[in-house]
Amino acid sequence: MVDLHILPATPEMLPELVSLEETCFSAPWTRKMLEAELTGNPFAHFLVALRQDRSGRGVESAVLGYHCFWIVFDELRLMNLAVRGAMRRQGVGRALVMEACRLGVEQAATRAILEVRASNDAARSLYKQMGFIHVGTRPQYYTQPMEDALLMEMNPLVLPDCRQSERAHDSGGNLLLPDSL
C-alpha cells in the first residue's frame, strides 16, 4: 500500500518540476518563472506530492504532482497545479489543493481564488467538489489555444470535506493520504 507525502518543493527538484510543467501545460511556465516562484517570491508556496511506500522502503523521489500557490494577506491564490498523467484521478491533485487550503486557513486567509481553462472539465469538477464556485469569466485569458478562463472562488475559505478524518501527518509534519482519495 502507498501513501502520498506532500512536502515543500526544493530547488533541487527544479528540473523535474520544469519537465512536469512542460508535459502538463500548452503554454508552460519557463524554468526561470518556476525558479522565481520557488525561491524568490515571498508570497509563493510550492508543494510536491511524492509516493511513500508503506513497506518501509522510503519515499520515492519522483514528483507525482506539484502545486504553486500564493498566500497574500487574507487571500489564497491557486496558481499552477500539475499532476503526472498516469497519476491523474488518483487523489494527487486533491491532496495538493487540500494542503494549500489548510495552509491558507492556518495563515489567516479568508478566501481562495483560481482561474481554470473553460475546457478543463476534470479540474473544474475537482474544484467544484472541493467547494469552489464559478464567479466570473476572463475572456481569451489563455493562449495556445486561445481560451476563456473561468474564475472560481471559495469564500469563505474552509477546509474541503475530503475525508478529513483520514488526514494524518508524519513526525516531520508531512501530509499522508491514502491513494484512494
Task: Give an account of the 3D structure.
The protein is α+β, with helices and mostly antiparallel strands and 181 residues long. It has a single domain, classed as 3-Layer(aba) Sandwich (Aminopeptidase), CATH 3.40.630. Helices cover 24% and strands 37% of the residues. The chain contains 4 helices and 10 strands. Strands 1, 2, 3, 4, 5, 6, 7, 8, 9 and 10 form a 10-stranded mixed β-sheet that branches. β7 and β8 form a beta hairpin. The chain starts with a strand and ends with a strand. The C terminus is likely disordered.
Q: Provide a count of the helices.
A: 4
Which band does the percent of strand residues land in? 35-45%
For this structure, the CATH topology is: Aminopeptidase
The percent of residues in helical segments reads: 10-25%
What is the overall silhouette? globular
Number of domains: 1
CATH class: Alpha Beta
Low-confidence stretches: 163-181
Q: Mind telling me the CATH superfamily name?
A: Gcn5-related N-acetyltransferase (GNAT)
Q: What's the main sheet like?
A: 10 strands, mixed
User: Using DSSP, what is the number of strands?
Assistant: 10
Question: What distance separates the N and C termini?
Answer: 13 Å
- Protein structure class: alpha+beta
| Radius of gyration of CA atoms, rounded to a whole number | 16 Å
Corresponding CATH architecture = 3-Layer(aba) Sandwich
Output the helix-strand order.
EHHEEEEHEHEEEE
Give the mean pLDDT: 87
